[in-house]
Structure formats: structure tokens, C-alpha cells
Design brief:
Elements: H1 2-16, H2 26-47, H3 50-61, H4 65-68, H5 72-95, H6 104-118
Amino acid sequence: MIFTDFLTTAALITETESPTLFAFPFPFHLVFAVISFIFFIVSFFRFRKPYQLLLAVGIPLSLLLWLADGNRNMYYGIGILELIILLLALITNIICKPKNKETASEAAEKAEKAEKTEE
């Protein structure tokens, strides 16, 4: 008897809750997207790394999910586009690494050579 009451109560509770696709509401998502866009744009202008520009576009692009309104094709399309942007960001981060800086011993040798040529 108690078990059937539990099932009935659980069924009623799930009917009253309206589960959504998103873990947090639209205003939080919008604020996060705007802050991340500003952060990555400023970072791009400071450091000139291409992955920062890709992420500056990719994160706010996730707001398009709110327009999908249950359209599976749009969900999958946005997901594939986001995956492509993330992969491009990863690849450009690997490719655009700064060149290896010279070691301290190489710098000391160059300084010694420069001193000898001045004399």
C-alpha cells in the first residue's frame, strides 16, 4: 500500500515539474555569453591568439539553442557547429604556439660573442 502511494506521489511530482533542456535560465546564459565574449575579445586584442577569437564567437553562438524550440535538426546543427569551433580552437592553439625561447646558456653565449666583437 505504501509503495503504491509512493508511485502515485512520484508521478504527480513529475507532472508538476516541467523539465527543460537547460540547466539554468536564459538570463544567466545571456550574462555568461556576454561576459565570455568580452573576455575573449579583450584577450584576443592583448595576445593575438586565434583560438580566443574562435571562442569569442562560439560561446555566444550557443544562445541559438534558445531559438530551436524543440527542433532536433537545429539542436544537432548547433552542436556540430560548436564542436567544429572547439576543434578549430584546439588545433589553432596547438599550431600557433610561440617559438621555443632560447635557453639561458645560449643567451649567455650570444652575450659573450657580442662583448668580444665590441672589443
